[in-house]
């Protein structure tokens, strides 16, 4: 068995579903859309978005991690529909909603928020990483999140607190928010820094 297999890391839903297991979905940022898993941001100087390293750091023997590499110019609303469908497939095969976590960074966080809204009847666990900007813009004020919600954001990033999202999402079971301060703005989530990876994985494991 390879290290990846031991850590239960997948690009899509596994062929065999264990109804007693935990499942975690990670949706990457916009810059990774396409064919390059390690693109470099030159516009803001945030450096390499190391998607393979992030997947490796987020994977864990205690849950199945599903991290799909989206195609270039993927429509976020269509992908949120796909993601919500995958979650419903798991629930349809006996997985408890409390054992499912959807999370994403930046564009992936927006997708995660929209999917959470589409899954309001299930209330799966939701993690937003530096992505509340678009979720609280005027044209997206109808989007709400559900279940137990974790927000992690970087102090020096314009994608700041999710407090406004939490305020309008009146049916959340719980809302936890963590501010990190690396001085790296949005780029803080381009690599698997312990400042956000460690508390994120602890939160996932705490959900029952």
Main features:
single chain; alpha/beta; Rossmann fold; two-stranded antiparallel sheet; 7 helices; 31% helix; 19% strand; globular
Folded structure, characterized:
This is Alpha/beta hydrolase. 31% of the residues lie in helices and 19% in strands. The chain has 208 residues and is α/β, with parallel strands linked by helices. It has one domain: Rossmann fold, CATH 3.40.50.1820. Helix 4 (107-118) links the parallel strand 6 (100-105) and strand 7. The longest helix has 17 residues, at 76-92. The protein starts with a helix and ends with a helix.
Q: How many beta-strand elements?
A: 9
Order of strands side by side in the largest beta sheet? 1-5-2-6-7-8-9
Low-confidence stretches: 1-6
Query: Helix/strand/pairing class, anyone?
Result: alpha/beta
Percent range of helical residues: 25-40%
Order of helices and strands: HEEEEHEHEHEHEHEH
Question: How many whole angstroms does the radius of gyration measure?
Answer: 16 Å
β content, as a range?
15-25%
CATH architecture: 3-Layer(aba) Sandwich
Mean pLDDT: 93
CATH topology: Rossmann fold
CATH C-level name: Alpha Beta
Total separate domains: 1
Major sheet details: 7 strands, parallel
Name the CATH superfamily classification.
Answer: Alpha/Beta hydrolase fold, catalytic domain
Distance between the terminal alpha carbons, to the nearest Å?
28 Å
Shape descriptor? globular
Our count of helices gives 7
SSE blueprint:
Layout: H1 3-6, E1 9-10, E2 23-27, E3 40-41, E4 47-48, H2 51-58, E5 64-66, H3 76-92, E6 100-105, H4 107-118, E7 125-129, H5 132-136, E8 148-154, H6 163-168, E9 174-180, H7 194-206
Parallel strand pairs: 1-5, 2-5, 2-6, 6-7, 7-8, 8-9
Antiparallel strand pairs: 3-4
